[in-house]
């Protein structure tokens, strides 16, 4: 079972609401017998992880995504009493972690449920410093031994020291194919622990999903010859893992992409440094996040277009009607078409 970090964030009214809701909500208790219609209840912070969980859980799981579509920003999302009720019934919770969706930790703290299983995608992906690579890392541990190990790992940390571990970390781990494969493996592992009777089905579902991820990785690898280590720019660090996998070198000033992501002002000097990337031929592609656009990012896109640099829109959440595999396949198509 993955440990979860404590959060100092508080959701207004959630703690009080949870006391009221506790009287009318009971956690589901799956028996592992598909015949009794007791589905494993999975709650995911976003529909990206909801889709991955649905692939792994298959017919034995019911998945609820707190955030669906592009209208809400997980960084600043404020959970509702209904969200808290939904989470109170979960057998498994999937959060991105890394500072991306702190509302999940706030709800977990408010619920007071120490038994719910939590998959932290940033840790499971192996991309975060000190992150865990997947179930094989702890295959021979008992649950008690793993819990003790997790506790020891952070026993001497202050809250500030723990926060420093994600400083500079790109939390958009779902854009890493290898990371997503590890996340899916961890979900399968935890579902098998919760529902041992159907553990083989979860493993089979994971392997089918992993095979499709491998095809995406092969496509990304095949595109390296088109890129040959050339530069790319981004308006926000969302697609960086994908661009790196294809072979791009990210030339964007970090102060620019971080300011756009955090909604803070971009200094004139940093903006000029970013715009100059298109004048001197440093980059051949601009990855544009349509979900965080504004006057500054529009200025960057216009500069790229005027310089003849290819512009590709890469979103942060699942487009309507897409699943994870079709979404990422479409992203690769768009980049390949732009390079051609």
From TrEMBL:
Cellular compartment(s): Cell envelope
Molecular function in Gene Ontology: metal ion binding
Biased composition (Basic and acidic residues): 152-162
Signal in keyword set: yes
Coiled-coil positions: 199-226
Presence of keyword Signal: yes
Annotated Acidic residues bias: 138-151
UniProt-listed GO biological process terms: metal ion transport
A Pfam family of this chain: ZnuA
Keywords of the record: Coiled coil, Metal-binding, Signal, Transport
Main subcellular location of this protein, as a coarse class: other
Protein name (Swiss-Prot/TrEMBL): Zinc/manganese transport system substrate-binding protein
Organism of derivation: Rhodoglobus vestalii
């Amino acid at each position: 079972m993955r440990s979860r970090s404590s959060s100092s964030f508080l959701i207004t009214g959630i703690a009080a609401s949870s006391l009221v809701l506790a009287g009318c909500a009971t956690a589901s208790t799956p028996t592992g017998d598909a015949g009794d219609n007791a589905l494993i209840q999975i709650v995911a912070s976003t529909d990206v992880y909801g889709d991955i969980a649905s692939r792994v859980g298959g017919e034995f799981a019911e998945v609820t995504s707190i955030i669906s579509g592009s209208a809400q920003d997980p960084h600043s999302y404020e959970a509702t009493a209904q969200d808290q009720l939904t989470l109170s019934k979960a057998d498994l919770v999937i959060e991105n972690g890394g500072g991306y969706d702190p509302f999940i930790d706030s709800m977990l703290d408010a619920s007071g449920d120490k038994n719910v299983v939590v998959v932290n995608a940033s840790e499971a992906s192996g991309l975060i410093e000190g992150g865990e690579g997947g179930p094989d890392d702890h295959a021979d541990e008992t649950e008690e031994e793993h819990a003790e190990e997790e506790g020891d790992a952070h026993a001497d940390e202050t809250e500030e020291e723990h926060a420093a571990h994600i400083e500079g970390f790109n939390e958009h781990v779902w854009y890493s194919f290898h990371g997503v494969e590890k996340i899916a493996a961890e979900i399968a592992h935890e579902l098998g622990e919760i529902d041992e009777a159907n553990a083989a089905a979860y493993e089979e579902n994971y392997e089918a999903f992993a095979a499709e991820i491998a095809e995406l990785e092969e496509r990304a690898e095949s595109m390296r010859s088109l890129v040959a280590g050339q530069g790319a720019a981004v308006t926000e660090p969302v697609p960086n893992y994908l661009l790196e996998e294809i072979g791009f070198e990210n030339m964007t000033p970090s102060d620019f992409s971080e300011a756009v992501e955090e909604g803070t002002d971009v200094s004139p000097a940093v903006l000029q440094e970013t715009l100059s990337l298109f004048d001197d031929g440093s980059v051949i592609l601009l990855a544009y996040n349509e979900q965080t656009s504004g006057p500054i990012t529009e200025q960057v896109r216009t500069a790229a277009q005027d310089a003849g640099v290819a512009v590709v829109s890469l979103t942060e959440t699942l487009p309507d009607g897409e699943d994870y595999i079709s979404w990422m396949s479409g992203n690769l198509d768009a980049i390949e078409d732009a390079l051609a």
